[in-house]
Amino acid sequence: MHSLEEYARIFARLTRAPRSGADTGDTLKKAPHKPLLLLSVLDLFADGAVQDGRVRLSPDLGDLFQRYWYRVMPPDAIPRIWLPFFHLHNDGDFWQLVATPGNERELTTRDALTSLRDLDRLVLYAQLDPDLVMYMTMAESRTVLRDVLIQRYFAPATQARLLEQATINAGAFEYSRTLLAPRIAAEALEEYAARPAVRDQGFRRAVVTAYDHRCAMCGIRILTMDGHAAVEAAHIHAWSESKNDMPTNGLALCRLCHWSFDEGLLGADRLRAILVSPYLSTQRNIPGHLAQLADRPLFPPANVQFSPDVTALAWHQRRVFRA
Ligand SMILES: [Zn+2]
Question: What whole-number distance in Å separates Cα of residue 7 and Cα of residue 94?
């Protein structure tokens, strides 16, 4: 039986590669991957998303890792989540890699991985030991472990940004759960009105979840585990005017469809069939496959309760779509 203090000591002794350069002060001149991954895992526990102590590479984990990453790293630094996911097993038994069937031998002989694909092929999940699972499940001990990670590995000015991101992550999880609840009281949403970062992140999560990461227009579904989401959440009736974050006022759209929707090149009618603007055919620089979406039905969300509101679609058709 390990105590919380022992885990705090283990978390305070993570090995990290050195970083050099002028802008490395935020992370005390060391690579921040491992502490940021553990912060992301703590957030997943807060959401109840880790079962049996099995941490899997998931779009949620990748998204959290990336959000922390850009709080401390320059914009051109690529968040390679597979690095700490693999190398954390060298920091103690608390993080044990479980191989995909048939690859047990190869995994034990590897001392590095070359890519996300490599990790995906070899590693099924990371198994946390039961005592740590117990502490990560409890809010108070999560706070102790989070404080160790933030205070030990980041400069004082950076610590505040990471704490702020942790608060936003927790709020966004709650907000998306509220938005996806079968019935929502209006008051439940009011408290989020003054928290735009929480709203943005929570709305995106709710809508993308409702559509299972599929673009409602072209149907593309690319699930990346490293936080590079292919699908975004678009408001149908602009939020600035509607103040409406309900999933029925949202569409999960890939970046191209999102841009085309916001520019009025794509829309949908009252029967939820896709409208393609005549303006599109005059633009030779816009990919032709968008024109082929005309009259096709929108890909629906898994739960029809979240189907796009036809009044909102009509607003978009009237105010944004270029007829
Ligand atoms: Zn699309």
Answer: 9
**Rounded distance from Cα 262 to ligand 1 centre (Å):** 13
310 contacts 270 by C-beta, under 8 angstroms: yes
How many angstroms is it from 116 CA to the middle of ligand 1?
24
Report the alpha-carbon distance of residue 182 to residue 306 in Å, rounded.
10
In angstroms, what is the span from residue 260 Cα to ligand 1's centroid? 9
Q: In whole angstroms, what is the distance from residue 55 CA to residue 85 CA?
A: 9
Both tokens of 242, joined, read 């509607």
CB-based neighbours (< 5 A) of ligand 1, an ion: 215, 217-218, 254, 257
Q: Which of 10, 9, 4, 3 is nearest to 93 (CA)?
A: 10
User: Would you state the structure tokens that stand for residue 285, as one six-digit string?
Assistant: 């620089």
- CA distance linking residue 274 with residue 291, whole number of Å: 10
CA nearest neighbour of 319 among 255, 274, 267, 257? 267
* Other Cβ atoms closer than 10 A to 290: 21
Contact indicator for 192, 162 with CB cutoff of 8 Å: no
Pick left, alpha or beta for residue 80 (phi over 0 → left; psi -120 to 50 → alpha; otherwise beta): beta
pTM more than 0.85: yes
pLDDT tens digit string along 49-61? 898 899 999 888 9
Task: Judge residue 235's burial from the number of C-beta atoms within 10 Å of its C-beta, 0-12 exposed, 13-18 middle, 19 or more buried.
Answer: buried
Dump pLDDT digits (tens) for 199-239.
Answer: 999 999 999 999 999 999 999 887 776 666 678 999 999 99
CA 61 / ligand 1 centre spacing (Å): 23
Q: Are 73 and 79 in contact (CB under 8 A)?
A: yes
